[in-house]
Specification:
single chain; alpha/beta; Rossmann fold; six-stranded mixed sheet; 8 helices
C-alpha cells in the first residue's frame, strides 16, 4: 500500500475572522494561506506523485492548484472527492468560534466526539468513517511504494491520523493540524499497521520522509533508523 501525504489547506478568510467555515461556499485563502499553499508545493519537490485528491471546497482546490504550480513536477491526475469534504457543522456553520465555545456541545466535541452530531448537520463519527474509507479506497488502486497527495481540512486529517495511530476516535482531538501543514502516513501491505511518519510538519523538504518507504529497504527500521535528514 502507498504513502499518503496529507496537507491541510492554507489559512482562509474564515480562519482570520475566527468563524467556523464548515462547508460555507466561497471561503478562500487569504494572503498568508496563498503563501502557505505555494510552500507546500516547494516542500514536495523531488517526490513523484501518483495522483492528487482534494476536498471540493474552494480553499482546498486553491491550495492544491498553487501547490502543484510551485511543485514544478509533471502534473499528476487530480480528483475532487466529496468523501474528504469538511464535516457538515449544520447550524454551527458560519458562527464565531468565540460564541461556539460557550455552547454545552463544545465540551463533548473535545472529550467525546464520537457522541457528537452537529445540530442540523453531520455526526463526527460519520465524518471519520467517510474520510478513512476514502483513503483506503484510493490506496487500493495504487502500488505499495506510490506516493499521493490529499488536500483537505483539519478534522478529516486528524481523523485519518487517529485511525492510522490505532487510537479510539474519542482521542482524535489530541492531534494538532495547522493550516498549510503536511503529515505523512505509510500504509504497508498485508497485516502490518500504518506507520505515521510525521504529523503537522510546517517546514523542510518532505522527500526524506517519503524516500525511506520508496527506496530499496522500505518501511520502518529496527531501532528507529537514522531519521529524516533532507
Amino acid at each position: 500500500m502507498p504513502i499518503v501525504i496529507l496537507a491541510r489547506h492554507g489559512r482562509s478568510t474564515a480562519n482570520t475572522e475566527g468563524i467556523l467555515a464548515g462547508r460555507r461556499p466561497g471561503v478562500a485563502l487569504d494572503d498568508t494561506g496563498t503563501s502557505q499553499a505555494m510552500g507546500i508545493g516547494e516542500r514536495l519537490r523531488g517526490i513523484d506523485l501518483a495522483l492528487a485528491v482534494h476536498s471540493p471546497l474552494l480553499r482546498c482546490h486553491q491550495t492544491l492548484d498553487l501547490a502543484l504550480d510551485s511543485w514544478a513536477g509533471a502534473r499528476p491526475p487530480v480528483h475532487p472527492d466529496e468523501r474528504v469534504i469538511e464535516c457538515d457543522y449544520g447550524a454551527w456553520t458560519g458562527r464565531a468560534l468565540s460564541d461556539l465555545g460557550r455552547e454545552d456541545l463544545w465540551g463533548r466535541i473535545q472529550s467525546r466526539p464520537s457522541e457528537v452530531t452537529f445540530p442540523g448537520g453531520e455526526s463526527m463519527i460519520a465524518m471519520h468513517e467517510r474520510v478513512v474509507g476514502a483513503v483506503r479506497a484510493w490506496n487500493a488502486g495504487l502500488g505499495e511504494r506510490d506516493a499521493w497527495l490529499l488536500v483537505t481540512h483539519a478534522d478529516p486529517i486528524k481523523a485519518i491520523l487517529s485511525d492510522a495511530l490505532g487510537q479510539p476516535f474519542d482521542r482524535f482531538q489530541r492531534i494538532g493540524v495547522d493550516p498549510g501543514s503536511v503529515s505523512v502516513v505509510h500504509y504497508p501491505s498485508g497485516d502490518s499497521s500504518p506507520f505515521v511518519v510525521t504529523v503537522n510538519s510546517l517546514s523542510g523538504q518532505v522527500r526524506g520522509f517519503v524516500d525511506r518507504f520508496t527506496g530499496p529497504a522500505g518501511g520502518p527500521e529496527p531501532g528507529g533508523g537514522a531519521g529524516h535528514t533532507a
